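Quick one: structure for this chain?
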Amino acid sequence: MNEELKNQGTEGENGLPYRQDDMNHSARRINTMALAINAQNYLEIGVNKGVTFFDVSIPQKTAVDPKFLFDVATVTDKNTLFSETSSDEFFSRLPVAQKFDLIFIDGLHTFEQAYRDFCNCLVHSHDRTVFLIDDTKPSDVYSSLNVQRKANQFRKQAGGKGLQWHGDVFKVVFALHDFHPSLNYRTLSGGRDNPQTLVWLSNKGLRKPLFNSFESISRLTYFDLHDHIDILRLCPEEEAFALCIDELA
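Got it. Here's what it folds into:
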């Protein structure tokens, strides 16, 4: 979920207002998985004000954002690293040997950048690394546009309210489905929390490619998503967590 939406207290999934206890659902999910897999090393791409990052309870944490909206100097934990740069620049300098146990991807909400972030994260994963990708199910057709300004503009012109913007990150799930058979995934759904996709290494999620073309995937629309909504593998989060833990074991 984009930080602008969370911090302005506007609508969440299904247009329902966010409550204070909804705002850290990402951290709650991350902490649940971290405890299950005994995660010691955490990477977050796209930190903004740190709404999620500071609530994550993992010993060693790395934050990446082009511009942190808080004073990094006030954080004295020596096991917390801040990299104020683009994710592309961060990965270009990160030693290949550096691996993370749990990775949260919540950077720029475009297919190209989110998928590039995911591929770069794969290099820094191991066979028990768990990934959580944010914003993989847009809340309406405007939210699915890959330019935030246009999403807000067109929704307002149509008489809609709110600042929801998920971009076209949903296409990353289509790419995972077609081009990453060694990964299994489920998109967490239900309730008021923002849908996110949980990904892990597994050969038990075999599926037949549907599009088998990055160009075709890049051209998908909000309506194409709903024509193929089963590709998201929507699933209650408790069930997704249990499946992930079972397959990693």
